[in-house]
Amino acid sequence: MARTLITGGLVITASDELHVDVLVEESRVVALATPDSHGWTADRVIDARGKYVLPGGVDGHTHMEMPFGGTMSSDTFETGTKAAAWGGTTTIVDFAIQSKGGSLQQGLDTWHEKAEGTCAIDYGFHMIMSDVNDSSLKQMDKLIEAGVTSFKLFTAYPGVFYSDDGQILRAMQRAGANGGLVMMHAENGIAIDVLVEQALAQGERDPRYHGEVRKALLEAEATHRVIRLSQVAGAPVYVVHVSAREALAELTRARDEGLPVFGETCPQYLFLSTENLAEPDFEGAKYVCSTPLRPQEHQSALWRGLRTNDLQVVSTDHCPFCFKGQKDMGIGDFSKIPNGMPGVEHRMDLLHQAVVDGHISRRRWIEIACAAPARMFGLYPRKGTIAPGTDADIVVYDPEAEQTISAETHHMNVDYSAYEGKRITGRVETVLSRGVPVIEGGAYVGRAGHGTYVPRGLCHYL
User: What is the pLDDT of residues 156-182, one digit of tens each?
Assistant: First the structure.
């Protein structure tokens, strides 16, 4: 039995900071103990003196190989999971898509075919429901049995993913009965389409108008609506990529009422703003995503929401499109710019920078990046913490190392970085996935196909 000993580091979980050694046998953590209290031997010893020993990150919102707007997100499951590993993320939950007129199972089968045998780290799936009807509602039960326990619906993108209030209510009622979790993209897509049409008619065609038409009030309105629909249905709701302080206020109000309402935000909303969308010479297209970037003053509200637990999770919504050949489809018409940004590689590092900057504590960093998404999506305690019996998904992290984020050095399959030139403190040194080294000594030592599909249980927060 292969044994790995990680010694001398500070083990940080969502609940504890402990100077203990970690013993791994095969794929699992088997023991933690202070260095002077054991006589463990191992086949491999990792010296973590002066380093943090962290649970591998869990990114609960990615879009690998996702078709959108006549193109496809540029990271494959192979390139995207490899990049995730470089950044200390050891599990992703991606989104399988039900096509209009198709079944949920067909959509899931398609995404299994994309991912199987190609991933560097472990993965699970949510299901995007594009066609809510009697048949797909019944199929939700079958997917839960297969470990797909969360279902995403949209109040945005009419004609593509949009569901009306009646469809959303029915899906929520079904989830209330079978234990599933409904995830909502909350923007008023019907109203946004009107504003897009009006902006283009007025000659407002640059990328910055993407943010101006997708108004914060329309995110707040849709957030309020899906919360009340979930209350009527008697079911929980999880609102994805919250970007606006007005939308966060709706979540906070509902949680103060004791409702099972949850929310995530993403690094782009914490570190970027409409100033990026307004960059000249079409550079702003790099930052087009939905929900959109907001004015900088929204950031303080989001940080506060993370500290008060009105926002529970930071995911990436990683959905990269190259600047050349994809984003430039929208030159002269911002509505044709593919919506999405890269980020899966930098989430853990950016959130460590937030620790350095005093926005959050070290344990809160691990809570929002590892433990909370694992609990939210039925992966805990197998993922998201370090304890006897957990998967040995472990990151040795150097909190003093400095790096500069750049497209020249990142590993995502995209030709720009949303954080180009940003200097940050902290860097991943070693990554184990189920006890197997993936990143070691600043080099990738993993392989495509090491990552396996992880069936998920029900949300642990309910």
Answer: 999 999 999 999 999 999 999 999 999
Residue-wise pLDDT for 322-366, tens only, equals: 999 999 999 999 999 999 999 999 999 999 999 999 999 999 999
> From residue 308, how far is each of 354, 376, 449 by CA, in Å?
15, 17, 39
Structure tokens at 437: 């080294």
Entry pTM: 0.98
Among the listed residues 401, 404, 407, 409, the one whose alpha carbon sits nearest the alpha carbon of residue 422: 404
Q: Residue 1 has what pLDDT?
A: 72
**Are 333 and 200 contacting, i.e. CB atoms less than 8 angstroms apart?**
yes
Instruction: Give the pLDDT confidence score for residue 462 in this predicted structure.
Output: 72
First to last CA, the chain: 38
Low-confidence ranges of the chain (pLDDT < 70): none
